[in-house]
Amino acid sequence: MKRRNRIVTGLRVGAVLPGLFLLWMGFVAFRGVSAIPKQSEMAVVFGTAVTAKGQPRPALQERLQEGLRLWRAGLVRTVVVSGAIESGNRRDEARIMANWLMDRGVPEAAIIVDSHGNNTWLTALHVARLHPQGAVVVTQWFHVLRAEWALERAGVSPVSGAAPFRFRPAELWYLFRDSVALPVYVLTKTPPG
Predict the structure, then answer these.
(1) How do the pLDDT tens digits run along the chain, 193 residues long?
(2) Which sequence spans correspond to the domains of the chain?
């Protein structure tokens, strides 16, 4: 009888956990697609892969366009471009992002280049060291909540988000990944000091 009760309990838990995770994914998605940028000192455009020829891929172009829109609208004074130096082609994502913005009229003085933003947490730590009076994270919808949390955890306040209005079916995988990554961040990332 006890064994049967354990099996029934295990089946119930097994049925509930996936449902809870789907609700969590829905919340992460909702927060991303409903993000509203607020007037801040800076926009933080998170990097992603560039082409072998040194051009932003479509997702990165969309992020850059959103950052440019915020700057042109006067919602931010400075744009931080943060990315890695790619291991395969040695392209500096942040420098490529800065050049893209300068080609569209953003003065170099209004751009901060972070070529060592190898992941969301490192970018957050680098931005926190700048002591901004608020920041807008600029990234794809599935990444907004984790990016906002990371900046807040690192000490930046207030933080809001902005995401391009574009959806690709492949982004559902990234939604799943970010829905797992945020709880991992909550459990493992400690603010400086």
Answers:
(1) 666 666 656 556 566 778 889 999 999 999 999 999 999 999 999 999 898 888 999 999 999 999 999 999 999 999 999 999 987 778 999 999 999 999 999 999 999 999 999 999 999 999 999 998 999 999 999 999 999 999 999 999 999 999 998 889 999 999 999 999 999 999 999 887 7
(2) 2-188
2-188 carries CATH number 3.30.2090.10: no
CB 114 within 8 A of CB 79: no
Per-residue b/e over 149-179, b at no fewer than 16 CB within 10 Å? bbbbbbbbeebbbbbbeeeeeebeebbeebb
